[in-house]
């Protein structure tokens, strides 16, 4: 069979690499892909943008692709799965209505409330309804979120009421475009964060291996929020008891609730969870896709054929399959361009990739492109050096051995990925 992966990041390189490892798969196409997917055996990039739904359908028809897996949220929120279904094509991901869990934080908050799923108390405001007085009465810090998709720039943790009011007003006044037309203002939650990712087929759920991401730019979890600077799996913070609570109190009522409301959820579902001191799994956010970089360590550990799991989900029989996981830990270190996330320096040539390819582990590409057979930096998050080991400490050693082998001017990465699991 032929498989199409939609997207161009590290998550998509990992998806393509994993699908290409399947004996059932003749070829994997990636739209549009990166330098890493361009060089991967059995994988070929096609020049179609991830949000060009018509172009994707054309490509799938022309190439005889039988399974499409969507990486990023934008095409899902734009309705790529609905469009494929109308054409009788198989595409793994939620339909547009269910993808609103990520596309509209206002929708997600109302949904959580309706189904009694634990989350921070919040109010949703618009330009017309916003009353700064209500914010001034709130305890600080105050969390201000643009409701729509804002590519990771939509959340402000305000240390004062004045900062919260200013952030909310900037969003409502159009700083983030449409994404800020509605703003969610919520209480600040304490605890330990974990990424909980499952596959769903509308009614059944298959949880993936646990993982944890490092969202802050600098060592010690300081500095601005980013898309994620590194991740590892498993996450010891998700004990068996916490795992059971997240399934029972978050995932199952979410899948049940969506089905009951007429928008059954098929696809990867990512719940960002803040685990409170008493173990309560509060939902910070939903993503309607896999996490990046969580996917890289998770798929390094997946021993089951991913295409088999996706097909089972599309057929509504996820309860008849299981996933087996490598008992070792996996850990990915994101290597970013100088100036990431605000103004990444692009265009530099990346050295050392051939050497790194001889070491254990895997360097997944994200913001890279090929030019005359040379890999160049083309985005803020450039590579994810992913290692494995008997323990998180061993996996960390392997990941940094890879990262230290690769160079370009201004390359930066955190030195402490995994510290919370050591
Ligand atoms: P989100 O995109 O909603 O996941 O927010 C981005 C990051 O901001 C999260 O990963 C958390 O680290 C942090 N965050 C979001 N909401 C809250 C909250 N209510 N309390 C504390 N931290 C939060
Ligand atoms: N690593 C966080 C995300 O994918 O949203």
What order do the helices and strands come in, and which of them pair?
Blueprint: E1 2-7, H1 10-20, E2 27-32, H2 35-39, E3 43-45, H3 53-63, E4 67-70, H4 73-77, H5 80-86, E5 91-92, H6 96-103, H7 105-114, E6 122-126, H8 132-136, E7 142-146, E8 155-158, H9 161-172, E9 182-187, E10 192-201, E11 205-207, E12 212-213, E13 216-218, E14 222-225, E15 230-233, H10 240-260, E16 266-275, E17 281-287, H11 295-301, H12 306-314, E18 329-336, H13 353-357, E19 362-365, E20 368-371, E21 374-377, E22 381-389, H14 392-403
Parallel strand pairs: 1-2, 1-4, 2-3, 4-5
Antiparallel strand pairs: 6-9, 7-8, 7-9, 10-11, 10-16, 12-15, 13-14, 15-18, 16-17, 18-22, 19-22, 20-21
Helix pairs in contact: 1-11, 6-7
Q: What attributes does this structure have?
A:
422 residues, alpha+beta, Rossmann fold, D-amino Acid Aminotransferase, Chain A, domain 1, 5-stranded parallel sheet, 5-stranded antiparallel sheet, 22 strands, 27% strand, binds adenosine monophosphate, binds glycine
């Amino acid at each position: 069979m032929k498989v199409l992966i939609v997207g161009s990041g590290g998550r998509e390189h990992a998806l393509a690499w994993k699908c290409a490892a399947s004996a059932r798969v003749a070829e994997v196409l990636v739209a549009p892909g990166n330098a890493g997917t361009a060089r991967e055996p059995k994988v070929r990039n096609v020049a179609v943008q991830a949000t060009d739904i018509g172009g994707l359908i054309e490509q799938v028809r022309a190439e005889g692709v039988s399974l499409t897996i969507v990486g990023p949220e934008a095409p899902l929120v734009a309705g790529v799965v609905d469009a494929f279904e109308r054409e009788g094509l198989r595409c793994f991901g939620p339909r547009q209505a269910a993808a609103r869990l990520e596309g509209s934080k206002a929708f997600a908050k109302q949904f959580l409330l309706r189904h009694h799923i634990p989350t921070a108390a919040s109010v949703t405001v618009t330009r017309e309804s916003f009353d700064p007085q209500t914010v001034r009465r709130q305890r600080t810090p105050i969390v201000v979120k643009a409701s729509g998709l804002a590519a990771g720039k939509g959340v402000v943790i305000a240390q004062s009421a004045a900062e919260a009011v200013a952030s909310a007003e900037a969003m409502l006044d159009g700083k983030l475009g449409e994404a800020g037309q509605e703003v969610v203002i919520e209480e600040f939650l304490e605890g330990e964060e974990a990424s909980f990712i499952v596959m769903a087929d509308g009614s059944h759920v298959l949880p993936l291996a646990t993982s944890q991401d490092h969202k802050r730019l600098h060592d010690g979890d300081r500095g601005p929020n980013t898309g994620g600077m590194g991740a590892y799996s498993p996450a010891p913070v998700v004990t068996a008891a916490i795992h059971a609570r997240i399934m029972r109190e978050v995932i199952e009522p979410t899948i049940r609730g969506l089905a009951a409301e007429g928008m059954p959820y098929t696809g990867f579902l990512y719940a960002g969870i803040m685990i409170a001191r008493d173990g309560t799994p509060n939902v910070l956010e939903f993503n309607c896709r896999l996490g990046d970089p969580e996917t890289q360590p998770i798929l390094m550990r997946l021993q089951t054929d991913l295409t088999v799991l996706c097909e089972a989900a599309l057929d509504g029989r996820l309860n008849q399959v299981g996933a087996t996981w490598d008992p070792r830990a996996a850990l990915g270190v994101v290597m970013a361009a100088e100036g990431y996330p605000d103004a990444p320096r692009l265009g530099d040539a990346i050295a050392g990739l051939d050497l790194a390819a001889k070491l254990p582990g895997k360097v997944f590409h994200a913001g890279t492109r090929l030019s005359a057979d040379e890999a160049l930096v083309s985005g803020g998050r450039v590579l994810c050096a992913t290692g494995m080991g008997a323990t998180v400490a061993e996996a960390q050693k392997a990941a940094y051995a890879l990262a230290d082998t690769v160079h370009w001017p201004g390359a930066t990465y955190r030195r402490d990925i995994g510290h919370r699991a050591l």
